[in-house]
Each structure stands twice: as C-alpha cells, then as structure tokens.
Design goal:
Helix content is 29%, strand content 22%. The chain contains eleven helices and 19 strands.
C-alpha cells in the first residue's frame, strides 16, 4: 500500500484507563475525555472500548462531536460538552441528550430558557482564565444554579503537568472554596491532576492524554503505532543534496529511502533533519525537510532495503517525537492524518 499503517491498540488504551482509575479511591468515578475524535485515534472505536471497560461518562469538546459519540455508544452513557451551550446548539444538546458544561452567565441563561429541566453542569474558573464562571460571577449566580440542580461542577488545572507548581494547590483551594457546601459532584483532575494525588481527585476524574499513551503518565502503554512504506531508494554521492531547499547534503556515499508520509499526514515539518524512524530496533535518521507527502531517510547502515519504517513504535513514543518537533504529544496524536490505513486490535472487554 502507498499509505502508512496506523495500528491502534485498544487493549493498551483500556489498560491505561484502568491504571488511572486504580490511582484513585473506590468512591471516585473515573470518566474519559475523548474529544478531537478520540485524540485522533477514532472516537467510535475508542469510546466503545472504554465503555465496555466500565466508563459511564465521557467528555467531548463541542456539541458537534456528540453525533459520533451517540452513534458509537447509544443512549445510555452521559456525554459532557466542555464548550457548554453555544448559540445554535439547543437542538443538538436536546436531541442527542448531551450535558453541557455551562461556562458563563450568558450560557446559563440560554440553557435555562431553551432547555428547561435538561441536565447541565457548570465550569468554574479557578485561575486559568480560559473557560468558566469567575468567583464573583459564581457568587451571584450560585443560588439560581443550585435551584436548577447541576449534575457536575468542574474546573481545570493550568499546570498539572508541573507537580511542583504552586498554581496547582492554589487552584484546588479556590475551587473548593467556590463549591463549599454543595452536594454536587466535582471534578478538577485530568491525567496530570490524577497523578498529583488524592487531594485532587474529588468525586470525579476525567483523564485524557494518559489514556492514549502520552505524558505526564509515564507508565502508560503506547496505543498508536505508525509504519510508513518505503517507495523508492537511491544512492546519493558526496556533495549531492536531498529534498526541498537542499537543507541536507551527503558527506559520504549514502543510501536514501523515500518514504510515504509527510506534513499532510501530521508528521510535523519541524522534524526535518532531526527525527529518526526505525527498522526494527535500528534507528534511521530523517535527512532533509519533511514535505507534504514524503520523507527521506538514511538507510546506509542497513544490510537490506526495508519494506517500511516505523515512526511510532516501542522505541519511540508520541512524546519522543514531540520533543524533536518542539511540541507536545497532544499535537502529534491529534494531527495524525486521514490517509493512514487504520487497523484496530483488542478492546473487546
């Protein structure tokens, strides 16, 4: 085949959820965040595997993602929408039985008027200054909200992947103060928050990146494995350049493999002249720029021409690649392109 093969290990995904679930007490519910098409791995397969493993509540980014979720899961699991109740969302929220996390006075008003009695949660801003009601707004709105019966109160940590950051404790304290005296379940911990310890677990956690094999969950099993086919090889003489812009020039006789894959497939252009691909356990340097559809790889040290080379494998995680590209594992995962032949294994319960 002319496209890369993206193998997605649903057993590893489930094992990661179970490990993060076990990190908190039995009284804490562990939900799952599956926004952005299950972090780029296919929300239908991902959500079904997690549901079979015991996940009853899921989080998505926007209401439009709810249709694929309902198709995958049916009517039973609760699906929370981080962006809340946006203009034009009322029919989707109502018809798909979504639970918006309301983020502002405007959203509270819209929801109560358009869908009276429909379940909702509220997001509170504990210091990240992104989404949610600020403390003064919440103080004014709280009596009205309490009377309507929210099903969840949520906030989000800005520095959960930095365990020593004072911001974590400050946000937790702010959130606890804002919700004091309420019987509504609370959630502030995603993957990083879970790893900060039991003080942050409250009544619900909602891991995301850790489910898919990413940092800061260092014990995560890798979920995505990516192999790219070799299209052609050539011998390059000393002094000859390779690729756009001639950013790499051979210093000695070099065998170069041209591989199917590029920035159209989510292989970040900043990896040029830095990344490695693997033939089994042997690293092979990427030489020259990443172009839209092709990579050029130095295979001089191999005693054979491989049929494919691996970018994501047991020797190289999404975070290893992210470090090379100057980004984070989230971007690597969610950028994985639609051209890959996707194959799933495991996840049957």
């Amino acid at each position: 085949m002319g496209t890369g093969h993206l193998q997605i290990d649903l057993d590893a995904l489930v094992a990661n959820w179970k490990a993060l679930d076990a990190a908190s007490g039995a009284q804490v519910e562990t939900a799952a965040t599956v926004k952005a098409d299950g972090y780029g791995l296919g929300v239908g397969k991902v959500a079904r595997a997690l549901s079979r493993a015991g996940v009853n509540r899921f989080f998505i980014a926007v209401a439009e993602e709810g249709a694929a979720m309902r198709e995958a899961l049916g009517p039973s699991p609760e699906i929370f929408v981080y962006s809340g109740h946006m203009p034009g969302d009322s029919d989707m929220i109502g018809d798909l039985h979504l639970t918006p996390m309301l983020n502002s006075i405007e959203q509270l008003t819209r929801h109560f008027e358009a869908l009276p009695g429909h379940p909702f949660g509220v997001q509170l801003d504990s210091g990240m200054n992104r989404l949610g009601l600020e403390p003064a707004e919440w103080a004014a709105a709280r009596p009205i909200v309490e009377a309507q019966g929210p099903v969840l109160l949520q906030s989000h940590l800005a520095c959960a992947d930095e365990p020593d950051s004072e911001m974590n404790r400050a946000q937790l304290q702010q959130f606890i103060e804002m919700t004091e005296g309420m019987n509504t379940p609370r959630s502030i911990a995603a993957t990083g928050g879970i790893l900060l310890g039991p003080d942050y677990h409250l009544e619900m956690t909602r891991p995301g990146i850790g489910l898919y094999g990413g940092a800061p969950f260092d014990d995560a099993h890798p979920v995505a494995h990516l192999s790219l086919p070799v299209i052609q090889t050539r011998d390059v003489e000393p002094g000859e350049p390779v690729g756009y812009g001639c950013t790499w020039t051979a210093e000695e006789p070099t065998r170069v493999a041209t591989v199917s894959g590029g920035y159209a497939d989510g292989i970040i252009r900043a990896m040029g002249n830095k990344a490695v691909l693997f033939d089994g356990d042997v690293p092979c340097p990427l030489v020259g720029r990443v172009s839209m559809d092709l990579l050029t790889i130095d295979i001089t040290h191999l005693d054979h021409v491989p049929s494919h080379l691996d970018l994501l494998c047991e020797h190289q995680t999404v975070d290893d690649i992210a470090d090379v590209a100057g980004t984070i594992g989230y971007e690597i995962l969610t950028s994985l392109g639609a051209r890959y032949a996707r194959r799933y294994s495991g996840g049957q319960g």
